[in-house]
Design goal:
By secondary structure, this protein is of the alpha+beta class. Helix content is 21%, strand content 35%. The chain has an 8-stranded mixed β-sheet, with no helix packed on it. Strand 8 and strand 9 form a beta hairpin. The relative contact order is 0.09.
Length: 488
């Protein structure tokens, strides 16, 4: 009876411990999304009243798309959390987006479904100063105030330290016109700022659009969007995506990189540089010294990188530029760009259209795949062969031999027939899967690393195993080695 009472009591004690422990768990890695609204760390104590740290900015006015340098400084601290909010409604969600100056000490977070709308620490390492950049959104309120929570030690912290208020110069007209001239970047034509995101209302009617995920909203921070619209002898291009580094698309005659016409929008010094390039095999893009693009515009806000430009359908004077009235496979990629606009390899497999398309032809609204069907089939068949059929075959031979020893199928023990069928299925699936990448690439791939060599090894061993099984004598056949040893 005593033991019956102790068990519920122990369970209750454990439950109480979990309940009281959960809310005081700290976040030394800075993943503090749970505090997006209150900005209060879950440290189980009350915040301090008189702040010791200050927030400073490099300007008092802003326009949508402008970059404001934000500094948090003071005595040594371990953690921090910075947001920008509507100065008239400080309980409203975080707005705008941040960019980092030091990725080792700070990281970007998503609050209120707005990507990169907050900044926090990456570890509890001691620090005295943090610098970040805030990018004003297109729908910014008239006045914006910066707030910060600072953790000096686990039990010593300040919440919502008020920072400077920055405001738009013209409160009656906070949003600039669609093409308000901004400072030019390195192109040969004027560059302007986009005041609002793209929309997909004309996709399939007057625009040729590519979206990933399919039918996603280009205003969303999770949507990759590319559109083409023919206007006379030129094509107007819009490209958008959740990228802090760069977005790029390329026109290709096949479904793998090499000898392609590429266009990049690169985030550089809190602006976007739009450039053309040529892709040679799988090496970094060769950037053009001359830019053949016109009406270049960009926007960097709300976790989105967006750019648009116009290009003539035919550019005979520019080597490497494809004619836009032909059919191509279309690639869409994104990746990181380091300081100075140096681009790095795309962070994920590029989106590739499933067929060739003429972007000046019939408007369509399509998607694509980040993994070609043949490669998907290759992976699926390998998974079925080596995780399913071969595993079940081994289990049947090891554990079902005594169970099915007196059950027969087609004149042989059932366990053996099932085992043999599964193993032959494994060899067949492996053989089919082995051929698919060669069909996709049209031969041996020099850029695939050690994977083809590993595949050839697996294929050879699978065939060798099948041959060994074929030459193996019957279970009841005479064992000549045993007879030889007995005669001696």
């Amino acid at each position: 009876m005593l033991q019956q009472m102790e068990l519920p009591g122990l369970a209750f004690a454990v439950w109480m411990l979990i309940c009281f422990y959960a809310p005081v768990g700290g976040y030394p890695n800075g993943k503090v999304r749970e505090a997006c609204t209150s900005m209060v760390p879950c440290h189980g104590s009350s915040p301090q009243l008189s702040p010791e740290h200050t927030i400073t900015v490099n300007g008092t006015e802003f326009k949508p798309g402008d970059s404001i340098e934000v500094h948090l400084s003071g005595p040594v601290f371990e953690g921090f959390f910075i947001q920008a909010r509507d100065a008239e409604h400080l309980e409203s969600p975080a707005l705008g987006s941040f960019m980092l100056a030091d990725r080792g000490a700070s990281q970007l977070l998503t609050c209120a479904h707005t990507k990169n709308s907050a900044v926090s620490h990456t570890s509890k390492a001691k620090k005295k100063h943090i610098k970040v950049y805030w990018i004003a959104p297109g729908n910014a309120p008239k006045r914006v105030q910066f707030l910060a929570t600072v953790v000096k030690k686990y039990k010593i912290f300040w919440v919502k330290i008020p920072g400077p208020i920055v405001s738009q110069p013209n409160a009656l007209s906070p949003t600039p016109p669609l093409h308000a001239t901004s400072g030019a970047v390195s192109t040969s034509h004027p560059v302007s700022y986009l005041s609002k995101p793209f929309n997909a209302s004309s996709c399939g009617r007057t625009k040729f659009c590519i979206r990933n995920p399919s039918n996603c909203d280009p205003e969303s921070a999770s949507c990759f969007f590319l559109s083409f619209q023919q206007e006379g002898s030129s094509v107007f291009v819009e490209m958008s995506g959740p990228s802090e580094g760069y977005l790029a698309f390329a026109l290709s005659h096949d479904q793998w990189m090499g000898d392609d016409d590429a266009y990049l929008c690169v985030g550089e010094d809190h602006r976007v540089r739009t450039i053309t390039a040529y892709l040679k095999e799988r090496s970094p893009p060769v950037l053009d010294s001359e830019n053949a693009l016109e009406d270049v515009s960009w926007r960097l806000a709300d976790g989105l990188l967006q750019c648009s430009f116009r290009r003539s359908i035919r550019l005979p004077a520019h080597k490497g530029r494809f004619n836009l009235d032909a059919s191509y496979y279309i690639f869409l990629a994104d990746g990181e760009a380091s300081e100075g606009g140096v681009i790095h390899k795309h962070r994920q497999q590029p989106l590739i259209t499933n067929g060739i398309y003429n972007i000046t032809g019939l408007p369509q609204d399509i998607g694509g795949s980040r993994s070609p069907r043949l490669i998907k089939a290759h992976g699926t068949l390998m998974f079925i062969a080596w995780i399913t059929t071969v595993s079940i075959g081994v289990i049947v031979a090891r554990f079902f031999k005594p169970v099915w020893s007196y059950s027969f199928l087609f004149g042989k023990e059932m366990w053996f027939q099932v085992h043999r069928m599964l193993m032959l299925t494994t060899v067949m699936l492996t053989s089919i899967s082995f051929v698919l990448p060669f069909i996709y690439r049209g031969g041996w791939s020099q850029q695939a690393g050690f994977h083809p060599y590993l595949g050839c090894t697996v294929m050879a061993l699978a065939i060798f195993q099948a041959l060994m099984a074929g030459f193996r004598p019957s279970r009841h056949a005479p064992r000549y080695l045993d007879q030889f040893l007995l005669e001696d």
